[in-house]
Design goal:
Layout (H helix, E strand, L loop, with lengths): L9 E5 L2 E4 L4 H13 L5 E4 L6 H14 L3 E6 L5 H4 E2 L2 H13 L4 H16 L7 E7 L1 H5 L4 H13 L7 E8 L2 H10 L3 E4 L5 H8 L9 H8 L3 H9 L4 H12 L1 H12 L2 H8 L8 H9 L3 E3 L26 E3 L2 H13 L2
Length: 342
């Protein structure tokens, strides 16, 4: 079992600012239970950008190793091959060797190598349990190849080289469009994860040095998202600079202007207060989802569809019953752009 006293990994939050892993005990419990049993389908973990999926998975790797469970973790967005892989020396060597033998971007070759290597040497793995984790897999292999990759992962689970092994495959994504592509075929179990809870983000906030704004202000702009908290922190706690960063980083002025031209302002403004209303114009909803501004929420009553607790409806934070803005910051950025459009 996971308790509050488990060994926590350290994370570089910003230059000269190191924090320890915060909260997520319920999520770790669920994932550990899946790892002990194995799972018949690949598990696709979907959640907002920057909600802490990578930190959660790296903490999971440590706990799995402590239990003696063999694990292969691949970070497809990491450009350094040594840091991109967490695995036993034998498995890591095999992954590096295969990825170097194949032409292509590092993340993509490692994503495919993780499945291929395990298929070849599974019988040599001493542990009865094996967990394969590929972080942000669909950014690496491409949306066009998402279904094919899922099918390869499913084939490993359905036809393992060693029938005695219990295998869990975890794949993560932040993109709503890739989630829909995966769901279309029924080859994976999709589980949603949300931003940190009020107390969870507070645990992270408390580790940051003074001076800093009141926590209630931090919560209202981040909605529990650790990456937004980091961006807020490195901008000397300036909300104005934080909003400007998101608008410029995503090129939102042009994108929102095009959306307003095609769909008008009215529904978009209403959607800032109640994001569920965005479903009244499905094409508008799809465009906002493609821009990673909004998230489609699983039914809260379907507990198997969530890793951890689903967010309660909260209009102030931009969370509806079926749809949510990725963070309150995303909502504020769109609102600022709309106000500037004549």
């Amino acid at each position: 079992m996971v308790s509050a006293e488990f060994k926590r990994i350290k994370l570089i939050f910003a230059p000269r600012t190191v924090v320890t892993f915060s909260n997520r005990i319920e999520e770790l419990k669920k994932l550990l239970n899946l790892a002990r049993r194995g799972h018949a389908f690949p598990v696709v973990v979907f959640g907002p950008e920057g909600c802490g999926k990578t930190a959660l998975l790296k903490q999971l790797v440590l706990l799995l190793k402590e239990e003696g469970i063999e694990v292969v973790y691949v970070d497809t967005l990491e450009e350094n091959i040594d840091r991109a892989i967490l695995a036993s020396p034998e498995l890591k060597e095999a992954l590096v060797s295969l990825s170097e033998a194949v032409m292509g971007p590092l993340g993509k070759t490692l994503a495919y190598a993780a499945i291929a290597v395990v298929s070849k040497i599974l019988s040599k793995v001493k542990s009865e349990n094996l967990v394969i984790i590929v972080d942000e897999v669909f950014q690496a292999v491409g949306l066009d190849n998402a279904a094919i990759y899922i099918k390869k992962a499913l084939n490993l689970l359905e036809y393992p080289p060693d029938l005695r092994k219990r295998i869990l495959i975890i794949l993560t994504t932040s993109e709503g469009i890739s989630r829909k592509e995966v769901a279309r075929h029924g080859w994976a179990d999709i589980k949603e994860i949300w931003n940190l809870s009020f107390t969870g983000l507070k645990e992270l906030y408390d580790q940051l040095p003074e001076p800093k704004p009141d926590y209630s202000q931090v919560w209202r702009i981040t909605g529990g998202n650790p990456r937004i908290l980091k961006q807020y922190y490195i901008r000397d706690w300036s909300v104005e600079n934080l909003i400007k960063w998101l608008i410029v980083e995503r090129g939102l002025e042009t994108e929102i202007a095009k959306i307003v031209k095609e769909h008008g302002k009215t529904l978009l403004i209403e959607g800032l207060e109640d994001p569920d209303l965005l479903l009244n114009d499905y094409q508008l909803y799809l465009k906002l989802e493609k821009l990673n501004l909004i998230v489609d929420l699983h039914d809260r009553s379907y507990s198997e569809g969530w890793i951890g607790a689903p967010p309660p409806k909260n209009p102030e934070l931009g969370v509806g019953n079926k749809i949510a803005w990725q963070t309150p910051l995303h909502k504020e950025a769109v609102q600022k752009i709309i106000q500037q459009i004549a």
